[in-house]
Amino acid sequence: MAPRPQPDRETAPAVQRLRLQYAKRGRLRFSSARDFQRALERALRRAGIPMAYSAGFSPHPKISYANASPTGVASEAEYVEIGVTEACDPEAVRAALDAALPPGLDVVDAVEARTPDFANRLEASLWRVELPGVSAPDAARAVAALLAAEEVLVDRMTKNGRRTFDARGAVIRASSSGEAADESAFDPAASDCAILTLVVRHGTPSVRPDDVLSALRRVADLVPPIPPRVTRLAQGPLDEAGTSVNDPFAPDRAG
Question: Which of 102, 121, 106 has the alpha carbon at shortest distance from 75?
Answer without folding.
Answer: 106
